[in-house]
Design brief:
Layout lengths: L1 H11 L7 E4 L4 E8 L6 E7 L22 E4 L7 H11 L10 E8 L2 E7 L12 H10 L8 E8 L2 E8 L6
Antiparallel strand pairs: 1-2, 2-3, 3-5, 4-7, 5-6, 6-8, 7-8
Helix pairs in contact: 2-3
């Protein structure tokens, strides 16, 4: 039992170090891949291809008094499968896995349906769990018949105040 639990934990947080190009038109590369809690699906972290991962200053600190309010705006474009988004949020919840310095999207593919959490500006000092509150707010507040899509403004991710989105787009927000 201990060995199978340990093997699951190790495989759940294994990642690939190389950055692989994905969507050159969006300027994104794969920064990290993590196996989801179900042991089958993958969570992929995408970042800006052209920027150094170490030169990102803290942004939006002047907005800290209102940051974290997660002002909700629903959208009907780029609708993501609600079940895929629920699975992604559950996989991110309580995870202290560190978000690389300059990603712009985190996507999960569940039963061939894609759901992505994206944000407008590079973030610092963030862990996966920092993405949960705003994503859950979109899931709960944007109730479309065929899927879910929306954004939250004044969202605190790590030490950065930004806009966060939940949709089927890895380069949207």
């Amino acid at each position: 039992m201990l060995f199978s639990t340990l093997a699951f934990v190790v495989s759940s947080f294994a990642f690939f170090a190389e950055c692989a190009p994905v969507d050159e038109s969006a300027g994104l590369v794969v920064l990290k891949e993590v196996t989801s809690k179900d042991g089958v699906s993958k969570i992929t972290v995408y970042g800006d291809a052209a920027k150094s991962h170490s030169e990102v200053p803290a942004r939006g600190l002047d907005l800290l008094p209102r940051c974290g309010s997660n002002q909700l705006v629903c959208d009907d474009q780029h609708l993501a499968d609600r079940n895929a988004c629920t699975s992604l949020v559950n996989d991110l919840r309580d995870s202290l896995e560190r978000v690389p310095d300059s990603p712009r999207a985190m996507c999960g593919r569940y039963n061939n349906a894609l759901c992505c959490v994206t944000w407008r500006t590079p973030v610092q000092n963030a862990v996966f769990d920092n993405l949960v509150d705003a994503a859950q707010k979109v899931l709960d507040g944007c109730r479309g018949d065929t899927g879910v899509s929306g954004e939250t403004n004044d969202t605190l991710i790590g030490s950065t105040c930004t806009t966060q989105c939940l949709s089927s787009e890895m380069s949207g927000c």
